[in-house]
Amino acid sequence: MNRLAVFDLDGTLLDTAPDIRMAVNRGLAAHGLEPLALAEVIPMIGDGARVLCERAFAARGRAVPVGAVAAFTADPDLEGGKLTRLFPGIAALLDELLTEGWRLAVCTNKPVIPARAVLAHFGVAEKFLAVGGGDSFATRKPDPAHLLATMGLAGGGRAVMIGDHANDMLAARGAGIPGIFAGWGYGAADMALDNPVAADVAALKPLLYST
User: Fold this and answer.
1) 8, 15, 164, 168: which one is catalytic?
2) Residue among 209, 198, 208, 205 nearest 92 (CA)
3) pLDDT at residue 28 is higher than 90
4) Which member of 43, 110, 203, 211 lies 3.0 to 4.6 Å from 115 by CB, making a disulfide possible if both were Cys?
5) Per-residue pLDDT at 2 exceeds 70
6) For residue 1, pLDDT beyond 70
7) Which CATH number characterizes residue 42's domain?
8) Is the peptide bond before 142 cis (omega within 30 degrees of 0)?
9) Which residues have a Cβ under 8 Å from the Cβ of 69 and sit 6 or more positions away?
10) Same domain, residue pair 118 and 104
11) 198 lies in which domain range?
């Protein structure tokens, strides 16, 4: 087989939104602002830490204060808080793919240090040949250069991108590889951009083999 499956992180491998919300709200509280509901935070996820902070503070009528992004990215809940979970079926799927000869990588707009830390926290870090974070290269998704650089770290070759955001599908399109939309994640259905949609983790494997 020796194909490469590149996964997004937040909303694809891991249900991190509840802990991201906690970290966001700690940042808001530090500046005397009211917390956001989970439903408000979920659509803000997917474009990296700075954009998330900009959206959160804008929702409370403020520009991002100096130091707020750094404080957010250093929040320990981003590295495996009490509310974060692997999506059901992900651990088994990763093991099956490895057994069947797939190579695995992660391409995420989350900063690389908390990305690696949260994967390690859930005992899956060693399954991935590469982790390309939002600050690993000069570009990030939807720029295909982010995805291509991550693929390169994992050895290149025939690949497929799996993610729950339009950024993932746009990066795949730009990189000239197939994309599969993670329908169990945080993105709206129209973010699939005409790519195949896996309604749940169990539906993903057949799509991987059909791309």
Assistant:
1) 8
2) 205
3) yes
4) 110
5) yes
6) no
7) 1.10.150
8) yes
9) 49, 50, 53
10) yes
11) 4-15+84-210
* Same domain membership, residue 183 and residue 98: yes
Q: State the residue for tokens 């996964």.
A: 7
Examine the residue annotation and report whether 8 is marked as an active-site residue of this protein: yes
In the block, residue with structure tokens 């982010």:
146
In 3D space, the residue among 79, 75, 72, 74 whose CA is nearest the CA of residue 56 turns out to be 72
Residues 67 and 128 in one domain: no
Residues whose CB falls within 8 Å of the CB of residue 116, separated by 6 or more in sequence, listed in order: 125, 131, 133
182 and 200 share one domain? yes
Identify the CA nearest to 118 among candidates 8, 11, 5, 16: 16
Please report where in the chains the tokens 């057949």 appear, as a residue: 206
Closest listed residue to residue 106, CA positions, set 10, 202, 2, 1: 10
Shared domain for 44 and 128, answered yes or no, is: no
Query: Per the structure, how many domains does the chain have?
Result: 2
pTM above 0.85, yes or no: yes
